Structures are given as structure tokens and as C-alpha cells.
Fold this sequence. Notes:
Keywords: Glycoprotein, GPI-anchor, Lipoprotein, Membrane, Signal. It comes from Camelina sativa. Helices cover 38% and strands 7% of the residues. The chain contains three helices and two strands. It has helices at residues 2-17, 42-55, 73-87, and strands at 33-36, 101-104. It has a two-stranded antiparallel sheet.
Amino acid sequence: MAKAHICLSFIILLYISSAGHFMRVNAQSQGFWCVAKPGTTTKQLQKNLDYACSKIDCQVVSTGGTCYSPDNLYNMASVAMNLYYQAEGRYFGNCNFEGSSLIAITDPSYGSCKYQFNK
């Protein structure tokens, strides 16, 4: 819970410092990843996965992909949401997904599933 508050505070601070305009995150030494909020409904996760995969290549979360996990929709949706966010230039507005996402500042990669981060 504390991590979510810190992340939200960081987003608010960046929003305020950008004078109300969406700003591009230009991370050099650290990363920003878009992930699903804990507690997001299965219906919304599926909607996010479908939307992201209609815009970008989601082979990594397809059968045989390194992030394919049919029993864990949360992880698959998070990977797809992050792929979309990275492909669109890491603007905070590209990690909205109807309010069901957040920006992570620690790499959410796990096992052989590596979350993309474009420098």
C-alpha cells in the first residue's frame, strides 16, 4: 500500500511540475513501467489486454511467449499494458486504461518474463 502512495505522489508531483501538460518521462538511470493496479477486475484486465494487443505486437503474451501465463490475467495484462505504454513514448496519459493502471518505478519483470523498457 505504501508503494502505491509513493507512486501516486510521484505522479502528482510530475503532473504539477509539468504545469498541467502531459510530460514525457525521460528516464536514463531508472525506469518507468505501466502495470495493472492490484484489485482491477478480471473484466477490466481483459479489456486492457485486448486494447493494448489491438495496437501493438503481443506475441510475448501469446501461447508460447515468455510472458504467457493463462492462469494469471493480471500479469499478462500488465505486460501488454507496458508494451503499449513503452511503444507510445512513455507519456503518463498512455498508462491510464480507464484508471486501472499505475506507473511502477521498480522493474516488475519475473522469471523469464522481462518487461520492456525503452531508453
